[in-house]
Description:
Elements: E1 2-8, E2 14-20, E3 41-45, H1 56-62, E4 67-71, H2 89-102, E5 108-113, H3 115-126, E6 131-137, H4 145-157, H5 166-176, H6 185-192, E7 195-198, E8 201-204, H7 208-219, H8 224-228, E9 234-238, H9 246-255, E10 259-263, H10 271-274, H11 276-290
Parallel strand pairs: 3-4, 3-5, 5-6, 6-9, 9-10
Antiparallel strand pairs: 1-2, 2-4, 7-8
Helix pairs in contact: 2-3, 4-7, 5-6
Amino acid sequence: xxxxxxxxxxxxxxxxxxxxxxxxxxxxxxxxxxxxxxxxxxxxxxxxxxxxxxxxxxxxxxxxxxxxxxxxxxxxxxxxxxxxxxxxxxxxxxxxxxxxxxxxxxxxxxxxxxxxxxxxxxxxxxxxxxxxxxxxxxxxxxxxxxxxxxxxxxxxxxxxxxxxxxxxxxxxxxxxxxxxxxxxxxxxxxxxxxxxxxxxxxxxxxxxxxxxxxxxxxxxxxxxxxxxxxxxxxxxxxxxxxxxxxxxxxxxxxxxxxxxxxxxxxxxxxxxxxxxxxxxxxxxxxxxxxxxx
Length: 293
């Protein structure tokens, strides 16, 4: 089962956190605050455009040994989407910090994909007392630059909205998107998760204007300094067809005081979605080595 727990983030923004476990038998709604559980805590942070539900498969095997909670970050999923933000990384990191503390997860393992991974390692650098270990999935430490930001913005604005059906969503993102090198049904499923049925068809659950703001806040900067300040065990995971190249990933491991490296065969940017079994085989041994259960 999954239950929702509301968290108060930076500036009072309401964030939806989703715990993948059987709820306590309270006879009513989940309590407003959650006491620290006996199982080690894991906070799952999705990437830009994503949502907590993208972690469902990962969270279900994590719950065999850990308390797994996935966070809808501001502007995403069921969390608040304040019109003017902020959508800078200070706000996102502060939100994650609040989630770890209010959910009683500390010291937590932070598992992040793409932007979520950057948030994870920035929080680990800022608050080492809250973080036990970090898993970085397909996120670069180097600056992406103005060209990358422009290309990404053009791609986001090119979506043929609204989609008439969810099948159309899956087909466009999984087969027809010009950015695709080959068909990817998993990618189609991933983007189907972020659509909602509106009066005129299927549209994203987020504001594209806000997503432009969120990516621009970190795409132009390098993040090596914060990475070097992460003192806990950290696993850098990539897929051969992802955005993080092998040379940069291995340099990230070298910069990290306690870095480790893993590669998931046949995976692209959406590592945990593309190859869920390979992802588990890469991450599970690392968690077992750093988290006492």
